[in-house]
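A common beginner's mistake is to predict each chain separately and then try to dock the pieces by hand. The better habit, illustrated here, is to supply every component at once so that their relative placement is modeled jointly.
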Amino acid sequence: MKCPYCNTEMELGYIQCRDGVSWNNKKSKIATFASSSLNAISLASDHGIFSGSSAVAYNCRKCKKIMIDYREDNTDRNSDL
Ligand SMILES: [Zn+2]
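With all components supplied together, the output reads:
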């Protein structure tokens, strides 16, 4: 994936969290409940007992931008587990 800001090839990686990875339009006072909000969008493409939730993410170190594609067919492409 090319960075939309500088057009450099972005680095594939993962954002991982034990309890889930989600986007919400409001910050929850208690992080555990953030993914249960009606407006929450799950970003996780994978979930395991030991690995937690992970979202595939592309990083541009030059622009310090991270992009997440949260389509359901966005599967784990580079996991070493
Ligand atoms: Zn960039």
